[in-house]
């Protein structure tokens, strides 16, 4: 039985209405779950029978095109990267936003953005036996500060900021551990140090904490 039918040069052709597809037996039409595919909604997706609904995360809104979200804050998007001895701030079109660079450092191997304080923090290697966590304000690049952590950072390969829980996460590829420090660096604890080999980097989603 055809749910919908049209004549073609090859004869009758069965098909399903929009937002439906044949089941595995090719006998009935079932709803397509558009939310399984990234092409329909930028951010939030809710599936309905025969349709779907897109929404945006807090801080974003629809730009008039179904499924597309843009940030409410339309400040210029920026790329922040470390160039070993300095940190640079660029726009997406390749323009340097702070001449000649945002801040000087020493052997900058890893950094992360702190959305809560609108700052960039990095592990600053002073010498082989000494390192610290330094931060610079993006609102006022002349304002910098240090965070002294209870754990040494001399062999840290990556840092990730949890701005929701106010914690720092570090990957240490020499001691082969991932550890956490409180926002002020006073309290630190190893969270993964068994069966982990040379961790080089880590990614963190604070909104899921």
From TrEMBL:
Keywords: Disulfide bond, EGF-like domain, Endocytosis, Glycoprotein, Membrane, Receptor, Repeat, Transmembrane, Transmembrane helix. One of its GO terms (cellular component) is receptor complex. The keyword Cell cycle does not apply. It is found in: Membrane. SUPFAM superfamilies: Growth factor receptor domain, YWTD domain. Signal peptide: none annotated. One of its GO terms (biological process) is receptor-mediated endocytosis. It comes from the Eukaryota. It is a single-pass type I membrane protein. Its main location: membrane. Pfam families: EGF_CA. Residues 54-69 form the EGF-like domain. One of its GO terms (molecular function) is hormone binding. This is EGF-like domain-containing protein. It comes from Lottia gigantea.
């Amino acid at each position: 039985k055809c749910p919908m039918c049209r004549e073609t040069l090859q004869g009758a052709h069965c098909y399903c209405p929009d937002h439906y597809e044949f089941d595995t037996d090719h006998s009935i039409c079932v709803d397509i779950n558009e939310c399984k595919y990234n092409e329909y909604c930028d951010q939030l997706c809710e599936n309905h029978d025969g349709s779907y609904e897109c929404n945006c995360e807090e801080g974003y809104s629809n730009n008039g095109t179904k499924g597309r979200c843009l940030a409410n804050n339309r400040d210029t998007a920026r790329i922040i990267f470390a160039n070993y001895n300095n940190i640079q701030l660029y726009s997406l079109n390749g323009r340097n936003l702070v001449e000649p660079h945002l801040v000087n450092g020493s052997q900058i191997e890893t950094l992360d953005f702190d959305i809560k304080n609108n700052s960039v923090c990095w592990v600053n290697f002073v010498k082989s036996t000494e390192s610290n966590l330094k931060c610079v304000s993006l609102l006022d690049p002349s304002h910098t500060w240090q965070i002294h952590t209870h754990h040494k950072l001399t062999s840290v390969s990556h840092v990730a900021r949890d701005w929701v829980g106010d914690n720092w996460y570090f990957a240490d590829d020499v001691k082969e551990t991932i550890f956490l420090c409180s926002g002020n660096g006073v309290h630190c604890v190893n969270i993964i140090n068994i069966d982990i080999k040379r961790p080089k980097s880590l990614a963190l989603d604070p909104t899921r904490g």
